[in-house]
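Per your request, structure below.
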């Protein structure tokens, strides 16, 4: 009788990312409250929102003239699941962000790995600063999938071998690649999110071009969709003013 492989240690592969809004205290009225307290003192929500066009105009003025602090009085917490190399880029954003990522020191990491999907352009052409990405050939796509999957299998087997020998998780994890999926809670406000979106998305309304890696852009797009639902006037003003954070 042969042993049945433990399904929990069998590598799996995915090409997507997930973003879940788990908690939010964020609305356009938060911006209005913060902005008007300096000139009108504390006001009721009814007073703040009784004139929608005035509210829209004030938010657009704040965005256009880069009065940024009123956009900080709100909070959004996201649960993000993505490859570790995405988090390496994400953690460059430090102002207005708080992070807690799952720890390979305290738990055994699951074998879920990133392999690019068919829509992911594979080939970089041109020199730095003037390059573009193209789809690549069918042969390159097949090679990428095959080589990555084999590499992932070998690295996870090495990780399991170290754990089985009693090596501490925090040491054994050194065998694992940045294509391993991780998860984290990321908390921000609208101002810090706008700075993130300005750098990590490519958008036709942006006055300052950005060239994000596609995988972190996928995360950014999902976060932006949740934010746009919560703060539609602020999101519209962000777009109308060239997607430049105040």
């Amino acid at each position: 009788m042969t042993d049945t492989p433990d399904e929990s240690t069998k590598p799996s592969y995915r090409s997507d990312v997930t973003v879940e809004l788990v908690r939010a205290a964020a609305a356009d009225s938060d911006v209005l409250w913060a902005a008007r307290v300096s000139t009108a003192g504390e006001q009721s929500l009814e007073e703040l929102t009784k004139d929608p066009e005035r509210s829209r105009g004030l938010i657009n003025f704040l965005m256009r003239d880069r009065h940024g602090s009123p956009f900080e009085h709100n909070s959004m917490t996201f649960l993000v699941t993505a490859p570790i190399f995405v988090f390496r880029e994400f953690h460059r954003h430090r102002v207005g962000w708080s992070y807690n990522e799952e720890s390979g020191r305290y738990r055994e990491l699951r074998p879920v790995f990133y392999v690019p999907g068919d829509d992911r352009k594979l080939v970089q052409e041109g020199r730095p600063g003037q390059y573009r990405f193209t789809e690549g050939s069918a042969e390159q796509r097949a090679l990428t999938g095959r080589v990555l999957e084999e590499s992932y299998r070998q690295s996870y087997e090495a990780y399991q071998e170290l754990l089985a020998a009693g090596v501490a998780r925090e040491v054994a994890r050194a065998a694992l690649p940045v294509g391993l999926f991780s998860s984290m809670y990321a908390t921000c406000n609208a101002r810090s999110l706008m700075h993130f979106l300005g750098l990590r998305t490519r958008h036709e309304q942006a006055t300052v071009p950005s060239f994000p890696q596609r995988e972190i852009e996928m995360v950014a797009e999902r976060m932006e969709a949740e934010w746009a639902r919560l703060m539609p006037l602020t999101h519209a003003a962000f777009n109308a003013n060239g997607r430049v954070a105040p």
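The two ends are 66 Å apart (CA to CA).

Regards,
D.
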